[in-house]
Amino acid sequence: MSTHPDIRDDLASDPVAPPRDVDDAHRALEEVQHLLRRSRVVESVVHNQHSPVHRERQALIEDLVHRQHVNALRNRVRQLHPADTAYILESLPLEDRLVVWDLVRSEREGEILLELSDSVRESLIRTMDNEELVAAAENLDTNELAELAQDLPREVVEELASGLSLEEREQLRAAMSYPEESVGARMDFEMVTIRDDVSLEVVLRYLRRFDQLPDHTDQVFVVDRDDHLKGALPLDRLLINEPEVMVADVMSVELLTLSPLDDVSEAAQAFERYDLVSAPVTDPAGKLVGRLTVNEVLDVIREEGESELLSQAGLREEEDLFASVWESAKNRWLWLAVNLCTAFFASRVIGSFEGTIEKVVALATLMPIVAGIAGNSGNQTMTLMIRSIALGQVTAGNARRLLYKELGIAFLNGCVWGGIAGFFAWLLYSDTPQGVTLGLLMMLAMMLNLLIGALIGMAVPFGLQKMGRDPAMGSSVLLTFSTDSLGFFIFLGLATLFFR
Fold first, then answer.
1. Handedness of CA 17, 20, 22, 24 (dihedral sign)
2. Distance CA 93, CA 394 (A)
C-alpha cells in the first residue's frame, strides 16, 4: 500500500482562519481597503505637520506610524484563506495590490497565485525575481506546480524541478505535456492506493499512519503490484463493514475511469451527472496515474462560465479589473472593430431606402422596434444553444428537430407580439392614411425578423463549433448585426412594396 506521492506538511506558522460565511471575503476586502485608506491619510497628515522637532525625530515618527499601519494590515492579511487573499488582490488597484502582496508570507504565495486569475497572476509574477518565485512555489504539490509552471520563467521551473524526487519530476513532466484542457493537465497525483488481498483492519491501521489524507479523499484505489487499477474502496464501506472483511469482498469494481487525454469539460459533466467527488485517471494500459477531484471540476466550471460571458461580450481574454487603460482597450478592440463594420453595413441598408423613409417618416421611428425584439428573441435561442452544446446535449440526430422547434417558437411569438406591436402602431398613426398599413407592416416584419433571429441564434453557435472555435465567441455581436441589418432590410423592403 502506498500514497502517490507523499503528503506534505503545512509549513505556514500563522493561523489561517477558515471562512465564516459567504460574505467573509467581502468583509475582509472592506477591512483591507479601510486600513489602506487610513494608512495613507494618517501618514500624509504626519508628513505635512510643521513642528519645531528635529528632522530626524520627524522621520522617526513617520517611520513608526508607517510600521504601525503595516503591522495591522499584515496581521489581517495573514489570517485570510488563500482564496480570500486572491479575491482581495484582484479587487485592488495595482499600487495597493503590491502593498498587500508584499505582506503575504512567502510559503503561502504559491497557494495564492494558484487562486488568482491569469491576468492578475501574471502582473504579480512580473514584480518577483527568480529567488522569490522559487520560494513561493517550492512547497506546492506536483500537480499545483504543473498548473503554475506555464507562467513561470524556464529557469525557475528547472530549479524547482531539481528539488523534486525522480518520481515527482516524472509526474511534473507528464502533467506539463498534456493539453491545457485535458484531464491530465488537471489531475492530482496525491492519492492512497491499497491491495485487494488485505483486510479492512489492515487498511484502517495504514490510514491512521497519515497526518492527513489527500484532499477530497472519498475512496482509496485498489491496484495490483504493477499499479493497474482493479477497483476502489469507498470510505463508507471501510467504516461500516467488519474489520476482518477482505478488501476484495467489498470493493467497487464498477467505477468511472478517465483518460489523461479526455476533455476536462466532458469530465466535469460526468462529475455533475454522477455526483462524484473523485475519479481515477488511468493510462491506455490501465495503470493508475492520478485522479481528478471535485475542486478541480468546480474550477473548470467556473472558468468556462467566465470564458463564455467574456466571449459573448466580444472580449478576447480575461481582463485585470485594474489593468492599464491601454491594455484594457486593446482587449476590446477586435469585436468593437467588427461591430463598427456591421453598424456601417446596417446604415447602408437604411440609406438604400431613403426614398421610402421620406415618403413615410413614421418608418424611422418604428424600425428600431423590429430589430430590438428580434435581437432579444434570437439571444434567448442562442444562449440556450450555447449551453446545450457545452453540455453535449445537441447532436446531429436532434439538431433539425431543435431548429423546427425554435422556428415554431419564433413564429408563435411573431404572431403574438407582432400582432401587439402592429396594434399599437395602428393606434399611434390611426389619424393618418397609412395607419392600417403600418400596423400590418409591423406585424409581418416582426414575424419574419423573429424567424431570422431564431435561425441566426442556432446557426452562429453551430458554425463556430464546426470551425473549432468557442460557440460563444462574439456571438452577441454577430446576432445583433444579423437582426439589425436583416430587420431593417425586411421592414423597409416590405414598406417599399406597400407604399409604392
1. negative
2. 43
Cell, residue 132: 522569490
Question: Which tens digit of pLDDT belongs to each residue from 139-173?
Answer: 888 888 988 988 899 999 999 998 888 888 888 88
For residue 46, which of 74, 72, 68 has the smallest C-alpha distance?
A: 68
Q: How far apart are CA 44 and CA 3, in angstroms?
A: 55
Q: Do the beta carbons of residue 211 and residue 276 sit within 8 Å? A: no
- What the chain holds in terms of domains, given with CATH numbers, is 9-177 (1.25.60.10), 192-312 (3.10.580.10), 325-498 (1.10.357.20)
- pLDDT, tens digit (0-9, with 9 covering 90-100), for 225-264: 999 999 999 999 999 999 999 999 999 999 999 999 999 9
Q: Hey, what amino acid is at 299?
A: D
Angle between helix 166-177 and helix 142-149 axes, rounded to 10 deg: 40
Q: Which three cell numbers stand for residue 18?
A: 477558515
> CA separation (Å) from 140 to 111, 113, 147?
7, 11, 10
Average pLDDT, the chain: 84
Is the model's pTM score more than 0.85? no
How far apart are the C-alpha atoms of 288 and 277, rounded to whole Å?
Answer: 17
pLDDT digits (tens, 9 = 90+) for 176-218: 889 988 999 999 999 999 999 999 999 999 999 999 999 999 9
